[in-house]
Amino acid sequence: MGAGLSGVPAGARDWAIAVCVATALLVTGLSGQRSATDAGLFGPALLTVGGLALAARRRAPVPVLAVTGLCAAGYQAAGFDVPAVAYLFAVYAAVRAGHRTAAVVASVAVVAVLPLAALASGLHDTGEAFARARGALELAWLVAAGAAGEALRQAERRADEAERTREEAARRRADEERLRIARELHDSLTHQISIIKVQAEAAVHVARRRGEQVPEALLAIQGAGREATRELRATLGALRDDDTVPPRGLDHVPELVEGARGIGLDATLTIEGQRQGVPAAVDRTVYRIVQEALTNIARHAGAATASVRIDCRPDTLAVRVDDDGGATPDAVPVPGVGLLGMRERVTALGGRLRAEPRSGGGFTVQAELPVDRAP
Fold first, then answer.
1. Are 64 and 53 in contact (CB under 8 A)?
2. CB 80 within 8 A of CB 36
3. How would you classify residue 194: left for phi > 0, otherwise alpha for psi between -120 and 50, otherwise beta?
């Protein structure tokens, strides 16, 4: 539709088209060689009904297809040599609505019936009857109407799919951003709060061993740390995702080790190999693996020492974190949120992760990340 009709309701446009087609059919029929008085009002009525039926082509395309086809055959039988314009509109509407089979069946029937209708009008020459039928409904017109309807149907379908794709992409971006923020909160806040909680518990323990009165502020910090940890795990536990723009990476691993030393853990760091060209996602994942491993050691392992080893190879970056805690080979570790998050990150980058008790006691976390396949 043109710009002038863009604000007109669809129903009003359909009626306007139907009235115009009916008027054109009626004028063409009445201006032909036969007059309305030759066949009474039957022929003009069919011409009018066939055109006005198009007003319902959106709501009921198949019934309109049948009505316009019957009307075309009827006014041909009544002696009106008028093109089946209304039927072509109906074919277009039916195919556009997706009723291709109905349009094909109806069209075959109409093409077969029109010569018979021309013979019923009084023609005795079969060739002339077929000529009139071809004039009323050229196969080229019929194919063009169907092709136009199919083309517009496909265009509308592609437009709908494109719109759905845009909406899904927008929702996916929003979800990814929400999950990225949640993941950052879990990875960073849980680590820091765990350190605060461990330090507070250690201070309370030392004070009680010495027989000293534990300050209320220290007890409040200890309780707040526990509560904050529970809240974070409950709120952010299911929200884990990977991010390719890391704020922290290999360069910040020494800070993690130094922080572990600050809470009384004898932690060491060894980095070997060339660190140039490490993808950002791998760089960040290594940091998060070390962070989570050290956090778990401080919270659960009861370890005195921990070692962090990072090996930068040409095609793989390997990281290993060991401790001498109380884990034993026959103890099956319960995967928590942090361990699941590590596994998800490593798997997303095409790597491998092992997190299990060591044969000699303690726990080990080992990951291998391919640096040539990472995004």
1. yes
2. no
3. alpha
- Give me the residue label for tokens 């929702």: 171
The whole-angstrom distance between residue 341's C-alpha and the CA centroid of its chain comes to 24
Query: Could you tell me the CA-to-CA distances from 92 to 113, 144, 219 in Å, in that order?
Result: 20, 9, 79
Helical pair 85-96 and 139-184, crossing angle rounded to 10 deg:
20
Helix 10-30 vs helix 85-96: crossing angle, to nearest 10: 150
CB-CB contact of 158 with 151 (8 Å):
no
* Cβ atoms of 90 and 107 closer than 8 Å: no
Three-state DSSP state, 315: coil
∠ CA 11-15-18, rounded to 5°: 140
Q: Is the pTM of this model over 0.90?
A: no
Per-residue pLDDT of the chain (375 residues; tens, 9 = 90+): 444 455 567 778 888 888 888 888 888 777 765 544 455 677 788 888 888 888 888 888 899 888 988 888 888 888 787 788 888 888 888 898 888 888 888 888 888 887 888 777 767 667 766 777 666 677 777 888 888 888 888 888 888 788 777 777 777 777 677 777 766 766 667 667 777 777 888 888 888 888 888 787 777 777 777 767 666 665 555 455 444 444 578 888 898 888 888 777 888 999 888 777 778 878 888 888 888 888 888 777 677 888 999 998 888 899 999 888 877 767 666 656 667 777 877 887 888 888 888 887 888 889 998 886 444
| Residues 6 or more apart in contact with residue 69 via CB below 8 angstroms | 84, 87, 90, 106, 109, 110, 113
CB 50 within 8 A of CB 22: yes
Please report, as a single letter, which amino acid is at residue 240. Answer: R
Distance CA 351, CA 353 (A): 7
Position 132, amino acid: R
Amino acid occupying residue 136: A
DSSP for residue 92: H
The token pair that represents 340 in the structure block: 């699941």
359 φ/ψ angles, rounded to the nearest 5 degrees: -65, -30
316-352: b (≥16 Cβ within 10 Å) or e = bbbbbbbbbbebeeeeeeeeebbbebbbbbbeebebe
Cα separation, 326 vs 233, whole angstroms: 24
